[in-house]
Design brief:
By secondary structure, the protein is of the alpha+beta class. The protein has a domain at about 50-140: 3-Layer(aba) Sandwich (Rossmann fold), CATH 3.40.50.2300. The protein is built from five helices and four strands. It has helices spanning about 30-50, 55-60, 75-80, 95, 120-140; strands at about 5-10, 25, 85-90, 105-110. Strands 1-2 form a two-stranded antiparallel ribbon. Strands 3-4 form a two-stranded parallel ribbon. The radius of gyration is 19 Å and the shape is extended. The N and C termini lie far apart (about 40 Å).
Length: about 140
C-alpha cells in the first residue's frame, strides 16, 4: 500500500465532479512500498518473458550480432550497477519499470512489442530502433 497516496481526478468522470468516482486514490510511485511493487511487477514480467524468442535470435543472427552469452537478466541483478544511460522501450515503462537510482540519464522511446508476431514484425522493429532510437541515444550521450 502506497505511503503517500493522493486523490486525483478520475479521467473517466472528469466532466462530472459530483460523481462518486470523480476523485480516486493514486500511488506516488516513489515511496518504498511503490518501489517494491514496481520491482515485483517487473520481476514477474521478466520471468514470463525470459524465454528466448526464436525470431529475435534469428534476426540478430542474420545481422551478425548474436552471441550465445546473450540472456535476459532480472532487474535485481543489475539495479545497483552504475549506468551512463538507461533506455526504456516498452510502452508502459513509466508505470512498470523500476527506477535506476544510479542512472545519470534516462530516455524513453516506445516501440510496439513484436513478440508473438512473425519475423517481419521483428525486422520492422529493428529498423525502427536503428532509425529512431539510436540517433537519440547518440544525441544524449554526446551532449
Amino acid at each position: 500500500m502506497c505511503l503517500n497516496s493522493r486523490l486525483i481526478v478520475n479521467p473517466k468522470h472528469k466532466s462530472n465532479p459530483t460523481h462518486l468516482m470523480h476523485k480516486i486514490p493514486a500511488k506516488c510511485r516513489y515511496c518504498i512500498e511503490c518501489l517494491k511493487e514496481k520491482k515485483r511487477n517487473w520481476l514477474t514480467r521478466l520471468t514470463i518473458e525470459l524465454e528466448k524468442n526464436p525470431n529475435a535470435k534469428k534476426l540478430l543472427e542474420d545481422k551478425g550480432i548474436w552471441k550465445e552469452e546473450y540472456h535476459s537478466k532480472t532487474i535485481d541483478k543489475v539495479i545497483d550497477n552504475a549506468y551512463d544511460l538507461v533506455v526504456t522501450v516498452c510502452d508502459h515503462a513509466n508505470e512498470t519499470c523500476p527506477m535506476f537510482p544510479k542512472a545519470v540519464k534516462v530516455i524513453h522511446v516506445g516501440f510496439e512489442d513484436p513478440d508473438g508476431k512473425g519475423f517481419d514484425a521483428f525486422e520492422a522493429t529493428y529498423k525502427e530502433i536503428e532509425e529512431v532510437l539510436l540517433p537519440k541515444v547518440v544525441e544524449v550521450l554526446i551532449s
